[in-house]
């Protein structure tokens, strides 16, 4: 019995190393796949191409991801995990609305700057009708969106921000911040440079934050109401 326990203990570190090694290899494969899916789209991407760029045989890659859809979903799982972690910053109603909105915009723009391939893969999936990942988006994004909307409604009820359609405000923030990843090539062409700079993202943050804070300002709504009257 003692010998059996000793053998089991001895195997534990080896098992942990195998799990860690597998996790790392799967993450490395996903990091290659996200760029290929972003460049070629789901239909235009092959497992063979990803395997070649990952430095693996097709058979070896398929040991970890048996199908292209399984790998695609793993990539999108990672994108959504990161995106929702940033989105969750709005779920604390105790903070000041201005500070929270500023931090949220900053986080979303940082995602666009640091993870442009991930943002594009997600955008392409949604533009195509979310045929392969729609259920996950609905089950994971919608509940958090509702929580964020409740926070906005609480702020409105307390008079901390002006009355505004929180759903469409969030849609607008997503569109503005994600465009700096999804349409960065167009922006760079307009600006006559190869790619967007860190200053471009800093300028975008200042401008988007200014627009959003103006939209939720209680004084701004009072002025607009007076003008309409």
UniProtKB/TrEMBL annotation:
<feature type="domain" description="HTH tetR-type">
    <location>
        <begin position="23"/>
        <end position="83"/>
    </location>
</feature>
<protein>
    <submittedName>
        <fullName>TetR family transcriptional regulator C-terminal domain-containing protein</fullName>
    </submittedName>
</protein>
<dbReference type="Pfam" id="PF00440">
    <property type="entry name" value="TetR_N"/>
</dbReference>
<dbReference type="InterPro" id="IPR050109">
    <property type="entry name" value="HTH-type_TetR-like_transc_reg"/>
</dbReference>
<feature type="DNA-binding region" description="H-T-H motif">
    <location>
        <begin position="46"/>
        <end position="65"/>
    </location>
</feature>
<dbReference type="InterPro" id="IPR013573">
    <property type="entry name" value="Tscrpt_reg_YcdC_C"/>
</dbReference>
<dbReference type="Pfam" id="PF08362">
    <property type="entry name" value="TetR_C_3"/>
</dbReference>
<dbReference type="InterPro" id="IPR036271">
    <property type="entry name" value="Tet_transcr_reg_TetR-rel_C_sf"/>
</dbReference>
<dbReference type="InterPro" id="IPR009057">
    <property type="entry name" value="Homeodomain-like_sf"/>
</dbReference>
<dbReference type="InterPro" id="IPR001647">
    <property type="entry name" value="HTH_TetR"/>
</dbReference>
<keyword id="KW-0238">DNA-binding</keyword>
């Amino acid at each position: 019995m003692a010998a059996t326990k000793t053998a089991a203990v001895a195997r534990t570190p080896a098992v942990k190393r195998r799990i860690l090694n597998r996790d790392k290899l799967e993450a490395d494969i996903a990091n290659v796949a996200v760029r290929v899916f972003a460049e070629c789209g789901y239909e235009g991407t092959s497992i063979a191409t990803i395997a070649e760029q990952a430095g693996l045989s097709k058979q070896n890659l398929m040991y970890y991801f048996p199908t292209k859809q399984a790998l695609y979903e793993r990539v999108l799982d990672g994108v959504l995990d990161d995106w929702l972690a940033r989105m969750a910053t709005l779920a604390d109603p105790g903070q000041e609305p201005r500070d929270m909105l500023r931090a949220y915009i900053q986080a979303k723009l940082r995602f666009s700057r640091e993870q442009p391939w991930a943002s594009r893969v997600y955008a392409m999936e949604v533009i195509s009708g979310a045929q392969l990942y729609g259920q996950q988006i609905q089950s994971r994004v919608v509940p958090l969106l509702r929580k964020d909307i409740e926070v906005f409604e609480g702020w409105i009820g307390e008079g901390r921000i002006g009355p505004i359609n929180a759903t469409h405000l969030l849609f607008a923030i997503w569109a503005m911040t994600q465009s700096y990843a999804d349409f960065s090539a167009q922006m760079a062409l307009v600006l006559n440079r190869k790619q967007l700079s860190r200053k471009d993202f800093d300028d975008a943050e200042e401008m988007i934050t200014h627009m959003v804070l103006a939209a939720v300002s209680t004084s701004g709504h009072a002025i607009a109401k007076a003008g309409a009257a």
